[in-house]
Amino acid sequence: MENLDIIKPDKMIQVAEKKGKDFKKIKTNQIRNFFAAIVSIKNKVEAMDEFIYSEIETELLLLQPKLAYAAGRQNVVRPFKEFMDEIIPSIQKSTDKEKAVINFFNLIESVVAYHKFYGGRDN
Predict the structure, then answer these.
(1) The domain containing residue 35 runs over which residues?
(2) Cβ distance 76 to 83 under 8 Å?
(3) Is 48 within a domain?
(4) If you placed Cys at 20, which of 9, 41, 90, 115 could pair as Cys (CB 3.0 to 4.6 Å)?
(5) Alpha-carbon gap, residue 113 to 108, rounded angstroms
(6) 10 lies in some domain
(7) pLDDT, tens digit, for every residue of 50-77?
(8) Is the pTM of this model over 0.90?
């Protein structure tokens, strides 16, 4: 995926819709558990007086092993893990980290919305 600081909104929505549909076999609570960790990072960013990437970098990178664990337990989570393994490094490669992180939050929120829209499993 391209660097998240330069992704266009229409491309982001296109990716989110495709991934939300692709992930519909994943249980809603599995997506929500992961999303809760992202919301925690988002809240930390929103509380910052000035954006400092290094204050969230570790938490952001640790999302990958957290998903690896979930994918190891439930094979259905593997495509979501692979997606995150693609987009988290795209934040790292971005020049404008703040914009990349904001776009990351927007992308994940959109994926969750489309996941629900396309009938993500409830149990």
Answers:
(1) 16-117
(2) no
(3) yes
(4) 115
(5) 9
(6) no
(7) 999 999 999 999 999 999 999 999 999 9
(8) yes
